[in-house]
Amino acid sequence: MVSFQHPSQLASLLQLDVGDAQPATAVAFSLLDVLERWIGVITDVPFHSLLEPTLSRGRNIRNLTVNVYRPIRMLPVSYKDSQFNWFTNEADLQQESFLRDTAAVVAFANEIYGEFANFVLEQGEELSQHDPQLDGNRGAMRFSELLVTQRFHAAFHYRQIVDFFDTGGYGPKPALPEMIVQEIGLPKNLY
Description:
- By secondary structure, the protein is mostly helical.
- The protein has helices at about 5-15, 25-40, 45-50, 60-80, 90-95, 100-125, 125-130, 145-165, 180-185, and strands at about 135, 140.
């Protein structure tokens, strides 16, 4: 079985050209934008609301926050070590068990956001100039491609939680700006 996270992996297997990609530094800053928006959306939410199941597979917002931010924490090490092994399910559940109120969920996300922001600022344009090939449990890919997949992943789930809040009567939460949606390539009918 072959696992794919990015279209370039399939294109490589089929020996197809994937075309021009966005510079990795720009993708990293765009990812930071999505992560910051996420934190802003969950900061004032009562904890019991973070534990309610969403429409997509019944996952709750605490779980989605852990699922989105855990791999972000791994990105700086992956850049240096050329390895990205991302395990979910039990690993996410274990991390979740330590997050027992809204403040803990927000602190978890904020800490990882800060670590990744420091990494992006330290690396700067180096991210676009040095693009290591990564190996891992989800297939081989370039670091720039991993950034693209993680940005899509975060934006996809961001839409999911905003939809949950909007339809659940929690008041309006800001959607991703259309410019970001187009930049990321999120289909309109997909969260």
